[in-house]
Amino acid sequence: MYFLAAEGGGSEHNPIIPAWQEIVVGGIAFILLCVVLMKFVFPRMEQTFQARVDAIEGGIKRAEAAQAEANQLLEQYRAQLAEARTDAAKIRDDARADAEGIRQDILAKAREESDRIIAAGKEQLAAERATIVRELRTEVGTIAVDLASKIVGESLADEARRKGTVDRFLSGLESTGAR
Amino acid sequence: MFGQANVLAQGQAEFPPSVGDFYLPSILPWGAENSYWFTKITAMVWIAVGILIIFFLVSYRKPQLVPTKRQWYAESIYGFVRNNIAVDMIGHTGVRFAPYFTTLFCFILLTNFFAILPFFQISPNSHIAFPAFLAVISYVLFNYIGIRHHGFAKYVKNSLIPPAPWYILPLLIPIEFFSTFLVRPFSLAVRLFANMFAGHMLLLVFTLGGFAMLSANVWLAPVSVLSWVMTIALTFLEFLVIVLQAYVFTVLTASYVQGALADEH
Q: For residue B210, how many C-alpha atoms fall within 13 Å in the half-sphere facing its CB?
């Protein structure tokens, strides 16, 4: 092969046979490159990729957690709101019931009071009436006796007679009035 | 590094170009013919390594969750090799090989790219020493991975004995041995080397050919111009080859690793 190349190329160089010096130089240079890049650069790139993945996935996870918490809070608030509504409704009902009770009480008291006032008025009226009737009866008796004395001309002041006559008259009056 | 330019300027370049054009005089000691320690080629390798180290270290000095533009570039390169080569070829276990594949890819891509970069204009990979070294690393890597994963006996059995009827095995086992353990490093190295070698040779032919025709006969000047236009066109082709070969080398290494890790043939 060396012979062929030497003949064909017309020079002492053979492109197929590597120069060992170049292998050494190329080897050292390439290994240096490998060491530096594979130790200091590409692992850090993998770390960065990983960190990026973590950042994205962590962000999603955080967002999910926040969402869950928000949902939970929402549920809680809803529950509280519902509870508050029932409370309010209960309070309203209670208040309404109370108000009704109070109204009934007041009405009952007022009725009682009015009954009492009416009863007292009636009593008073009856008493006054009785007094007036009694006074009238005396007066009518006196007047009637006086009139009769004047008409008859004699004194009817006889105690026993007078009393019986007048009472009889008045009873007759009352019985016709009642009829 | 400027030896080539001098040679062109002084009109000393001979046509047709030969293998000797790939072996430039040494830089240190200056002008020595057969000294390889410090030549334009080795200098370019060091420059490539320096550029890559500085680029990655600077752009990844302070990695942030929300990347800066430079950090994003660096991550894109790594992400490309990681997802489109390592993970695609090997699966999720391939992630642990992604750093090496990325280093390999970047190194080959940049050293290849010197083939069309003004003032560099030759790729170190047109000297077989560098592709050979990379191929040896790939070879050792996939064999080591396979032996560590399966144990020596099972790995050799997996690699050599395909699921075929027994009577065809005497034919298949030597072929498998030949292709897996003998040819692979050579095909890797030679594919890259030959592509870069041929690319440089093509560009030399069309560039120097233009000068040769011009100096032979002034009336050939239009053809010289055509030749140089071809050089420009071929430079674009060369760019395609550069990227493709870097990709192919990395993908094949990944494929060999995947084959070594595979449970069955």
A: 16
- CB-based contact (8 Å) between B182 and chain A? no
**Cα–Cα distance, A22 to B129 (Å, whole number):** 6
Shortest Cα–Cα distance, A92 to chain B (Å): 60
Write out the two tokens for B244. 């493709």
Contact A34 B103 (CB under 8 A): yes
Among A11-20, A154-163, B66-75, where is mean pLDDT lowest? Answer: A154-163
Cβ contact B78–A22 (<8 Å): no
Find the distance separating the first CA and the last CA of chain B, reported in whole Å: 48
**Nearest CA to B81 among B65, B95, B92, B64?**
B95
- pTM value? 0.72
Give yes or no for a contact between B53 and B41, defined as CB atoms under 8 angstroms apart.
no
| Residue carrying structure tokens 């054009």 | B21
Q: Answer whether the bond into residue B162 is a cis peptide, omega within 30°.
A: no
Q: What is the ipTM, given to two decimal places?
A: 0.88
CB B99, CB A35: distance < 8 Å: no
What is the spatial distance between Cα B173 and Cα B169, in angstroms, rounded to a whole number?
Answer: 6
Residue type for A59, please? G
Nearest Cβ partner of A33 from B19, B49, B128?
B49
Q: How many interchain CB pairs under 8 A, A with B?
A: 127
Q: Per mean pLDDT, which range of A29-38, A101-110, B27-36, B81-90 is the poorest?
A: B27-36
Cα separation, B229 vs A12, in Å, equals 33
**Hunting for tokens 């870097």 — which residue is that?**
B246
Contact B103, B95 (CB under 8 A): no
Collapsing DSSP to helix, strand or coil, B30 comes out as coil
The Cα–Cα gap between A55 and A58 comes to 5
* CB of B18 less than 8 A from some CB of A: yes
What is the Cα–Cα distance from B197 to B132, expressed in whole angstroms? 14
Taking an 8 Å cut-off on Cβ atoms, the answer to whether A26 and B60 are in contact is no
